[in-house]
Each structure stands twice: as C-alpha cells, then as structure tokens.
Design goal:
This protein has five helices and five strands. It has a five-stranded parallel beta sheet, sandwiched between helices. It has one domain: Response regulator (Rossmann fold, 3-Layer(aba) Sandwich), CATH 3.40.50.2300. Helix 3 links the parallel strand 3 and strand 4.
C-alpha cells in the first residue's frame, strides 16, 4: 500500500499507538508530536500526505490547533483529507467548524481503534490517490 498518513497528536502514547495500529494495517505513517513539528513537515517536505489525523487541542504553540494545521495543509493541497480527533467532541460548534473547514470526519476521544480504522478506510476508498514522493 502506497498510502502516507500524517498523525498530529501531542500525547506521545496516543501518537505511538496510532502509528503502530496504522502501520500494522499496511499504511506508511509519519507523526508529529507538536504543532511546530507538523508545520515543518507540511511546509518543508515534498511528501504527499493522503490523510491527516489531527488532534484538535495541541500543546506548545499557544493558539495553534489541529484545525489550523489542516488549513495550512489545505493551502498546499486543496484535496487533502483529514480526520479530527478530540476530547472536546461534545462541542457541536467545534464539530460544525471542523466540517465547514473541510475536515472529512470527527472522532470523539476516547474511541475504538476499529472505528478509526473504518473511518480511515472509508475516506481513502473515496479519494483519488497520488503517489507518495
């Protein structure tokens, strides 16, 4: 499988778990543990990410959220796909804001890994894949 996924999650344990699970399913995965790391990967890499999995609430860069990271990615690739994960999923306004920005799916934490995998599969099945760089 030549699919590249970028995980942006500042919780190290969650980040590692997501990477391991997605790699075990055959996906190529890169991760960012901070907003700054994600920005660097998106701005200074020639890689094409088929899917972003973004935590909404990122630490270390005051005011930068997963939604902001998605907007930056969308500037480079208007067709980029994304899943937002958040412990603030009960916030209907946040979910609406994510959807109106173009986020493909919103998953509340905590979640079942099978639900995430089903969502990843569904989004990737319905998108046009470019080759990874």
């Amino acid at each position: 499988m030549n699919i590249l996924i970028l995980i942006v999650e500042d919780d190290k344990y969650m980040n590692e778990t997501l990477c391991e699970v997605l790699e075990s399913e055959g996906y190529n995965v890169e991760s960012a543990l901070s907003a700054l790391d994600a920005i660097n990967k998106l701005k200074h890499s020639d890689k094409y990410y088929h899917l972003l999995i973004l935590d909404y609430n990122l630490q270390y860069l005051q005011g930068i959220t997963g939604l902001d990271i998605f907007k930056m990615a969308k500037e480079n690739d208007p067709e980029v796909k994304a899943i937002m994960i958040s412990a603030y999923g009960k916030d209907k306004e946040l979910k609406e804001k994510a959807r109106s920005t173009g986020i493909n799916a919103f998953i509340d934490k905590p979640f079942l890994i099978t639900d995430l995998l089903d969502t990843v599969d569904d989004i990737l099945r319905h998108s046009n894949h470019k080759e990874t760089a």
